[in-house]
Amino acid sequence: MNNKFYPKKEMFQEPLIKNMCEYKELVEEFEKDYEGTWAKFAKEKLDWFEPFTRTLDESNAPFYRWFDGGKLNVAYNCIDRHLKTKKNKAAIIFEGDNGDKRILTYRELAYEVSKTANMFKNQFNIKKGDRVVVYMPMIPEAAITMLACAKIGAIHSVVFGGFSAEALRDRIIDASAKLVVTADGAFRKGKPYMLKPVVDTALEHGCECVEKVCVVERNEQEITWVAGRDYSYNELIKNESSFCKSEPMDSEDPLFLLYTSGSTGKPKGVQHSSAGYILWAQMTMEWVFDIKDNDTYWCTADVGWITGHTYIVYGPLAAGATTVMFEGVPTFPDAGRCWQMVEEYRINQFYTAPTAIRLLHKMGADEPSKYDLSSLRILGTVGEPIDPAAWKWYYEEVGGSKCSIVDTYWQTETGGHMISPLPAATPIKPACATFALPGIVAEVIEEDGTPTPRGEKGFMCITKPWPSMIRTIWNDPERFKKSYFGDCKKDGKPVYFTGDGAMIDDEDYITITGRTDDVINVSGHRMGTAEVEAAIKKHDNVAAVAVVGKPHDIKGEGIFAYVVLKSDDGIADELEIIKEINSLIKTEIGAIALCDDMAFVPDLPKTRSGKIMRRILRSIVKGEAITQDTSTLEDPSIVQKIENIVNG
Ligand code: WT7
User: Fold this and answer.
1) For residue 419, is it within any domain?
2) By the 8 A CB rule, do 397 and 372 touch?
3) Residues contacting ligand 1 via CB (< 6 Å)
4) In CA terms, which of 64, 332, 460, 464 is 20 to 30 Å from 222?
5) Is the pLDDT of residue 2 over 70?
6) Ligand 1 center to residue 486 CA distance, Å?
7) Domain that holds residue 529
8) Is 376 helix (H, G, I), strand (E, B) or coil?
9) Comparing C-alpha atoms, which of 324, 304, 296 is closest to residue 312?
10) Is 0.90 surpassed by the pTM of this model?
11) Tens digit of each residue's pLDDT (9 = 90 or more) over 233-249
12) How far is ligand 1, taken at its centre, from the CA of residue 358, in Å?
């Protein structure tokens, strides 16, 4: 599939960027006056309480500051300012697992957010700058809680509901959170599941910072209530006033923390700003999703990930759009659920991950044809490179060969899209993220900043600061510098390195080739091998372990562990150990990090200085020939032994 797919112009009424000429003009505008152009957009797109006086401050690089002097409120920009013109427009359409529905208009959302914000202030003594951990299912109260925090200037840290009590505890402690907002549980595949018991376990020790727990009653299953600590959201909210002033925030005041995996065992609390973040969330919503007033937009992510933050809550609402929130899973009651919802709500933009596309393709290749999907205009994908087979099915069967596919490349740290087609303008090459968005200076370079020759793999860097970039790692500014500005330099100055490899072709199209570090991408989610290894090492009988990614049909990459046991008593024992190890991973991290496969090996390939040669382990699991030089290994014969065990 080397041919290009051109946007169907008739699908678009008034796109903000109509063609590649306009794209280039905009890129040039940024080139000529980078700060001035950003300032123009910031003034035009956002409502400010006080104007900013300085667009970009680079004096303390890489701790960049944007729009200093300005005051605004993100919740105000997402809700209140729309009340003049859209108060009866649906802001959030919620569909429950079992099909129950709830629509919140902008006016109703304003009402709920204000009441919740007042509850946080009055009942839980939450003040500007306090951290609130949100451990919630996909229900409107999750978005309401985030926006209520934004309204009063509290910093939320949403923890994905699939994380274990241990993982939740680590994140609560690192952020030193005062309040945890959770739910009794929710529904998945027709059955209730629980969250509150996980919070109870997390709070058993080490979380002295937490004063109160606020519980939304969603599935109404029995839970334990700790007197003086746990309170019912549903009860407390009744007494609160529905008027709450939006706290004027500095542009650089943190909006939220979101923990993500890195190359050590400890997750990083990515800190985002208020003004820069919301500006780019809104701009990309308008450019990449071509969001229009009558559109209904659906992103299937979970609010526990950055995609849920930027493209379910903040971006759509800042743009005044209607955003769909879905509690369930795409395969329940059957693999037609998403398409049934697209038909029912007349969805115009559908945004999901390649792993979901592969799953839906596999489980119901014909399902899309059973529904009326004619409302669709744009199909989005995110999280990992999409393979050509999945791309083709998505384009032809879901999009009827007339929708634009936007393969959006970005990260938790970038806040919003970095590289993506523009739906009405960019000729698409399947499985290719295409070009950097206007304002984003993305370059594929070598460590010293020289451009990587076309067709070769280099480092994917963003070489100019941009408004929605990560500001720091919570509590760890040194790690921030080292993780993102330690590897690549341009003109002698450290530049932001994404951790991904990329390639530019002879037409300047950028293809992302995947992580270059010890991070694996499981179902579009980042998993640090060190985190999984740390969990496995807690097993009494494990002497050493190395975790690598193994290609997986649905997940993209699965987790494969090479385990060296202290004492190995044969096959029966190993099966037992596999179970024990997976149960440890479940306790330490959560089911999302379970190993797909394990091999028990006599030793790991180590250099004489003790460094594990992971590249060899990656090649073995992929069944590739070993091209690395093994002569520097402490015991070169180990490679053959491991290969025999893994590949028989
Ligand atoms: C990593 C970021 C961004 C929201 C979801 C994941 C990979 C992301 C693409 C894409 C190829 C992609 C990268 C990136 N990635 N989008 N369109 N094509 N790779 O967020 O957990 O922060 O992970 O996901 O490797 O670094 P995240």
Assistant:
1) no
2) no
3) 260, 306-307, 382-385, 407-412, 433, 498-500, 512, 515, 521, 524-526
4) 332
5) no
6) 20
7) 519-647
8) coil
9) 324
10) yes
11) 999 999 999 999 999 99
12) 17
